[in-house]
Amino acid sequence: MIVSGSTQVAEDALAVRAALAAARVGLVDREVVAEVVTLCAVAGEHLLVVGPPGTAKSSAVQRIAEQLGGRYFEYLLGRFTEPNEIFGPVDLRRLREGVVEIETAGMLPEAEIAFLDEVFLGSTAILNTLLGLLNERVFRRGATVLAAPLRVCVGAANHVPEDPALAAFADRFLARVFVEPVADARLEELLEEGDTRAAARPEVPAPPTWAGLDRLAAAALACELGAVRPVLATAIRRMRAAGVPITDRRAVRSQRLVASAAVLDGRVVAEAGDLWTLPLIAPDPAAQTAAREVLADLIGDAANRGLFHAAEEYSRGSAARAQRLVATGRDLLDRYGTEPADGDRRLRLEAVLREIDAGFATPDLGAELAAIRERLIAAVGS
Questions:
Q1: Exposed (0-12), middle (13-18) or buried (19+): which is 336, by Cβ within 10 Å?
Q2: How does DSSP classify residue 119?
Q3: Average pLDDT of the chain?
Q4: How far apart are the first and last CA of the chain?
Q5: What is the mean pLDDT of residues 190-218?
Q6: 152 pLDDT exceeds 80?
Q7: At a CB cut-off of 8 Å and minimum separation 6, what does 7 contact?
Q8: CA 172 to centroid of chain Cα atoms
Q9: Nearest to residue 280, comparing CAs of 16, 27, 63, 46?
Q10: What pLDDT is attached to residue 382?
C-alpha cells in the first residue's frame, strides 16, 4: 500500500508521541528536556542543557534515547579526559604499519544520539575534533575519516562559559534548555518516583523504529515554510530589537526547529504557532524570557500534540497548557484508575484539578479538557 507523505508523517509523529509518553513515566519536571532532545533529533541540531549538578539532566536524555532507539553514547568529560576515551583508541595493528587509525566501534563517531556531560571541560584536542563532528558530521583523526551518523549531541554544563575561546564551540548547540531543581509543588512526586524501594514500574510501549525518526527528519527538510517565513523574519527582528543576540547563522538554522515542530505535530506545512521554538535559540534565561515576551502575540496560541510541555514552556500559551493538562490527567487516571482515590493519589489528582480550574473558565475548557476534568472529579470522589 502506498502511503501519502502527510499520512506517513502523521503516523510517524504518533509513534514518537508514544515514545515520549513512555519516556515521561517516572520523569519529574524534566519533560521539556526529553521533548527538546526529540525536536533536535528531527531537526539534526544539537542541544545544550544548562543547570546545577544533580538536576537529572542525564536521566532525561537517557530516557528518551532508550525510547527513540538508535545507537547511544554517553560520557562525563574532565580536564584529563583523553581523546581515545571519546573517539576510540588507536588501532595498534595499523600503528605497527606506520598508519594512525582509530577504532571507533561503540564510541562517539558511530553514535546517533550522544550525551556529553560537562562538555566545556574537554581538552583543546577533544573540542577541536568535536567541532568538525558536530558541524559537518565527519570524524577526522589521523588517517581515519568517517561520515558520522550523529543526529543530535546533547551537551550538559553547570553554566554557559564566559571564555571567548569557547564561544565558537558553544555556538554549535543551536537550542538551549535551562533547568533548575524540581519545583516545590512536585517534591512529593519526585520523592515517590525516586524511591528505589518502590515496586517495578509498569511496562512501557516498545520504541518506534529509528527509520520513523529518519522519515520525520526527511519530512522536516521538505516541510513547506513559505507562508511562515515572513512571520519568522518579523520574529527575528523583534528578538534582536529586544537585545537578544541572534547571529545570521542561528537565524537561518532556526528554520529547522520550526519545520521539525510542524512534522512532530503531524503536519507537512509550518504555521506561525510553530515559532514557539524560537526562544530556544536565545543564549541565556534572561534572553529566553525577553524572546517570549516580544513574541507573545505570535506564539500565544501555540500548541503541539507531541511536544506540549516544551510548547507550553516557550510560548506560555493556554492551548499548550490545555494539551499538557489533558495528557497529565489521562496519565494519572490510567495509572490510578477511576475509583475514588485517597492519600497521595488523591493529592496528585486534586493538584491537576486545581490547575485546570485556576487556568480556565468553564466556557474555555474545550471538549477534551472538560471530559478529563469530569473524570478527575469522579476519581477524587467529590
A1: middle
A2: G
A3: 89
A4: 50
A5: 70
A6: yes
A7: none
A8: 16
A9: 46
A10: 56
Cell numbers of 117, please? Answer: 556531560
Task: Yes or no: say if 9 and 216 are a contact pair by the CB < 8 Å rule.
Answer: yes
How far, in Å, CA of 225 to CA of 193, rounded?
41
Buried b / exposed e across 14-33, counting CB within 10 Å, b at 16+?
ebbbbbbbbbbeebbbbbbb
- Supply the DSSP string of 121-173, one letter for each residue: GS-HHHHHHHHHHHHHSEEEETTEEEE----EEEEEESS----GGGHHHHTT-
The reported pLDDT for the residue numbered 201 is 53
Reduce the DSSP state of residue 108 to 3 states and report it: helix
> Which residues lie closer than 8 Å to 242 by C-beta, 6 or more apart?
290, 291, 293, 294
Residue in the block written with cell 512532530: 264
- Express each pLDDT in 207-264 by its tens digit: 566 889 999 999 999 999 999 999 999 999 999 999 999 999 999 999 999 999 999 9
Other Cβ atoms less than 10 A from the Cβ of 135: the count is 13
Element spanning 175, H or E: strand 175-178
More confident residue, 336 or 103: 103
- Residues 25 and 204: beta-carbon distance below 8 Å: yes
Dihedral sign for Cα atoms in the order 168, 172, 178, 182: negative
Sign of CA dihedral 313, 314, 315, 320: negative
Neighbours of 169 (CB within 10 A): 20
C-alpha cell at 131: 567541532
Whether pLDDT at 354 is above 50: yes
Spell out the residues 6+ positions from residue 146 whose beta carbon is closer than 8 angstroms to its own: 104, 109, 110, 138, 139, 140
Identify residue 27 by its one-letter amino acid code.
L
pLDDT digits (tens, 9 = 90+) for 91-122: 888 777 877 788 999 999 999 999 999 999 99
Closest by alpha carbon to 276, among 253, 300, 259?
Answer: 300
- SS3 call for 316: coil
